[in-house]
Amino acid sequence: MHFLWTLGARSSPSSNRFLLLKRFQSTQTTAKNAKSIFTYGKDGHYFRDRIDPNESKFSKILIANRGEIACRIIRTCQAMGIKTVAVHSDVDSNSLFVKMADEAVCIGPAQAKLSYLNEDIILNAVKQTGAEAVHPGYGFLSENTKFAKKLADNNVEFIGPSSKSIEAMGDKIHSKVIARKANVSMIPGYDGEVKDEDECIRVSNDIGYPVMIKASAGGGGKGMRVAWNDK
């Protein structure tokens, strides 16, 4: 198993995909008389963002997520004049995000692997509704390289990083190698493969306690442990 050891490291927050819609818009005019809405920003605070009604934008977006995540995306789309498509499991059919969306498509039973994680069914919903882009929110398929690639192959925009970027940064060890090559300041740590307990102790002493152990392919803060000494 591969592990990444770092000193005083913290799990980074999920990528803020909220309002990445604007990153894919081509600004054609200045934002005179632009509409101002509240958007979700850094550190969980809200700030005013300007929306230019003359900007080129998608006419319909499918939201491949559920609950509060989907609700926030839908509200933003409504403010921007973009139609929305909600996909939902059968048990979510009466949920608020489904009622808020302009269209809704049931994609399967409650089990996520049969609905919200089912790439092909969601892609079929995209084709069925004519959505031009998919907003994955976070979790579910938001970091799935295959899904992002399938959308690109079907000329559907994935509102988020490219499949190549997701793949490159998905492994913590590989992402640190990329960051180091780009001269990004790094937290002291060990990027190799930890084979056994003795090597863990040796590496930890080289770095200096406390250390945090992370699974190289982990996510969402899972599998992280802080060690304060050799024991």
From TrEMBL:
UniProtKB keywords: ATP-binding, Biotin, Ligase, Nucleotide-binding
Cofactor: biotin
Domain ATP-grasp residue range list: 176-227
Annotated ranges, domain Biotin carboxylation: 57-231
GO cellular component, one term: mitochondrion
GO molecular function: ATP binding; metal ion binding; propionyl-CoA carboxylase activity
Protein name, entry field: Uncharacterized protein
Organism expressing this protein natively: Adineta steineri
